[in-house]
Every structure is written in structure tokens, then in C-alpha cells.
Automatic annotation (TrEMBL):
The chain crosses the membrane at residues 6-29, 41-59. InterPro entries: VanZ-like. Keywords: Membrane, Transmembrane, Transmembrane helix. Residues 94-159 form the VanZ-like domain. It holds the Pfam family VanZ. It comes from Allokutzneria oryzae. This is VanZ family protein.
Length: 171
């Protein structure tokens, strides 16, 4: 499916991922809140957004060649420079910058910790890209990792700054 002229691999795998992710989120939600004391509504929102993000990124894609992990590792300076140059290159990378913002904002609001959102923003894109390197039709991309991580860290920092300015409400 194309969204804003960018291919988004939505298939029956996505639907299955959304259903399973929603079920797992509902199963984990109450025990997680009871154990951590995090805000109940934002914790559920975080889990649902996380499972939705994974469902949207783990479906098969259109690439015809076999995936490899080496493609996304910036082993040469050119690869890293090229990935950084791609960040502002097109709409797909702009959407990648925004992709993790909702889940990161929800995590910071649930936990009231900027660091948890920032850590998620740095770790989740790595997990996604490594996994995509093993999914037929998907490729691993350093530019995607950088865009996702950049957008997520900025979202965490901005949400944390807003939280520091507002009084704490009971969860």
C-alpha cells in the first residue's frame, strides 16, 4: 500500500501482528502497572503503540534480492556519510523521523522518565533494522535507524521538558 507516495508494507501479516500485539498488550498491561506503578492509561497506550509499530515494520516487503545484515552496518565511512545525507533526502525518511515519536511520547508519559523514552528510541530501531534484514523483501538501512532514533530521542526530550513544566497528576 502506498501512503503519501511511500510504500508501506501492509498485508495480512500486519493484521495478524496487530491482533497478537493487542492481545499481548492487554495481557501485560495490568501486571506491568501493578509492578511498576506507571500511569495505567499511558502504559496501555505505550504497549499498543509498540505492538502497532512492530506489526507495521515486520511484514514482508517488495525487495527482490535476499536480505543481508551487512547492508546496514556502517563499516565504511562512506556508508555512514551516505546514511546521514539520506536523512533529509525524501518523504520516506521524514516519515521515519516521526515513526517512533508516538510510542516514545507515551512511554515518557507513562513512566515520567525521559531516559526510558530515549533508551527505547535508540534500541527499538536497531531491533527493527536487524529483524528486517532477515525478513523476505525487507532491507536493513542505517539511514532508517538514524531517522527513527533521531525522531524518537527528540520526542523523548521534548516530552520530558513539557513534563518538568507541569504538575504531576495522579495516575
Amino acid at each position: 500500500m502506498y501512503l503519501f507516495q511511500v510504500y508501506v508494507p501492509i498485508s495480512w501479516w500486519t493484521g495478524l501482528g496487530l491482533l497478537l500485539g493487542g492481545a499481548v498488550s492487554l495481557l501485560l498491561w495490568r501486571p506491568l502497572v501493578a509492578r511498576t506503578g506507571w500511569h495505567a492509561g499511558w502504559t496501555l497506550t505505550s504497549l499498543l503503540l509498540l505492538s502497532s509499530t512492530l506489526a507495521l515494520t515486520f511484514g514482508p516487503g517488495l525487495q527482490r534480492r535476499p536480505p543481508t545484515l551487512l547492508e546496514c552496518l556502517p563499516l565504511r565511512p562512506y556508508t555512514l556519510r551516505h546514511a546521514i545525507a539520506q536523512l533529509a533526502g525524501d518523504l520516506e525518511n521524514s516519515l521515519n523521523i516521526l515513526m517512533l515519536a508516538p510510542v516514545v511520547v507515551a512511554v515518557v508519559l507513562a513512566t515520567r522518565r525521559t531516559s526510558y523514552g530515549a533508551l527505547l528510541a535508540l534500541a527499538l530501531p536497531g531491533l527493527i533494522e536487524i529483524t528486517q534484514s532477515q525478513i523476505p523483501g525487507r532491507v536493513c538501512s542505517t539511514a532508517d535507524y538514524l531517522a527513527n532514533a533521531l525522531g524518537g530521542v527528540v520526542a523523548a526530550v521534548l516530552t520530558g521538558a513539557v513534563l518538568r513544566r507541569r504538575p504531576v497528576s495522579p495516575g
